[in-house]
Write a structure and sequence with these properties.
Layout lengths: L14 E2 L14 H10 L3 E5 L6 H12 L3 E5 L6 H5 E6 L2 E6 L1 H8 L2 E5 L9 H8 L4 E4 L4 E4 L5 E6 L12 H4 L2 E5 L5 H12 L3 H16 L11 H12 L4 H13 L3 H15 L4
Parallel strand pairs: 2-9, 2-10, 3-6, 6-9
Antiparallel strand pairs: 1-3, 4-5, 7-8
Helix pairs in contact: 7-8, 7-9, 8-9, 8-11, 9-10, 10-11
Bound molecules: adenosine-5'-diphosphate and magnesium ion (MG).
GO molecular function, one term: ATP binding
Pfam family, one: CbbQ_C
Protein name: ATPase AAA
């Protein structure tokens, strides 16, 4: 498959080596300056915001600018400390230690990005605390060692505050060790630029999609899994770029993914007719 501009391969725990073109990232405010300042000071970062608002792309651009490898881990509710730190594996008739992505990042001085960190098991905080604060150390219990993070190591975690249950909210003690950056949806103009570029559509198509997306975001979100993110607007734009009528593109790429509920679907379809009915 041809690589899209700025797109990086995303296998869990895979390392992206910086080089080549900068991943396309359109700044929304002062987040680039805050990230770089925090990174240089060895402070960990907490990126807050809904899915599809550019957090992953932002980290990729920052890793590129700072010239550091990036190791991304998509957290999930089965993710254990061993998944992050490493474990003994059987190789033939030998047991060998295999570093997890976090240990790897700590040794290499890479930027480690834990996406949706609150999804991970609570016990992972045991290793995250000493890493996130001034100690910058990773205890590896199974090996009986504590690693000092190599220069250049950076810890970045993201989570979606609206989406998570209160129970799974990050512990205060973890949060206090981090510098936070809030991601909202981009301002109208900025989002139009992003959709135009990422979907390869005209500015006026992008403007219509953004206007519709903003209308969806203003709805009471009951019944919607997620709000209409920049990501789904881009997906709709890509379908338009392939020649689909605006209405079909929006139904397939925006309304469909957002809800399974028949009544809510009908409501969204009506909005699409109002906002995007004109032939593209
Ligand atoms: N500020 C931005 N600059 C460039 N592209 C963006 C921006 N915000 C969103 N995007 C686009 O939206 C898509 C989803 O963003 P992503 O970084 O994956 O979101 P998140 O990690 O917050 O879920 C990206 O692949 C990119 O095409
Ligand atoms: Mg992401």
């Amino acid at each position: 498959m041809p690589q899209l501009p700025g797109e990086l391969e995303h296998r869990n725990g895979a390392t992206c080596i910086p080089g080549g073109e900068r991943p396309y990232y359109q700044a929304l405010g002062n987040e680039e300056a805050v990230f770089k300042a925090a990174y240089r000071q060895g402070l960990s970062l907490l990126l807050k915001g809904p899915t599809g608002c550019g957090k992953t792309r932002f980290v990729e651009a920052m890793a590129h600018d700072l010239g550091r490898p990036l190791i991304t881990v998509a957290c999930h509710d089965d993710l254990t400390t061993a998944d992050l730190v490493g474990r003994y594996l059987l190789r033939g008739d030998e047991t060998v230690w295999v570093d997890g992505p976090l240990s790897h990042a700590v040794r290499e001085g890479a930027i480690c990005y834990l996406d949706e960190v609150v999804e991970a098991r609570q016990d992972t905080t045991v290793v995250l605390h000493p890493l996130a604060d001034h100690r910058r150390q990773l205890p590896i219990e199974r090996l009986g060692v504590t690693l000092d993070a190599a220069p250049g190591f950076g810890l970045v975690v993201s989570y979606n505050p609206g989406y998570q249950s209160v129970l799974k909210d990050l512990k205060d003690s973890t949060r206090q060790r981090m510098v936070a950056i809030d991601f909202g949806f981009p301002a109208t103009e900025v989002e139009e630029v992003i959709v135009t570029r990422e979907a390869s559509v005209t500015r006026s198509v992008a403007a219509e999609l953004v206007r519709f997306g903003q209308a969806v975001r203003r709805l009471e979100t009951g019944g919607l899994r997620e709000v209409a993110s920049t990501r789904v607007l881009i997906a709709a734009g890509r379908l338009v770029a392939e020649g689909l009528p605006m209405r079909d593109a929006a139904l397939a790429a925006i309304a469909g993914p957002l809800t399974d509920d028949a009544v809510v679907s009908r409501g969204l379809a009506e909005m699409i007719d109002i906002y995007l009915a004109a032939p593209a």
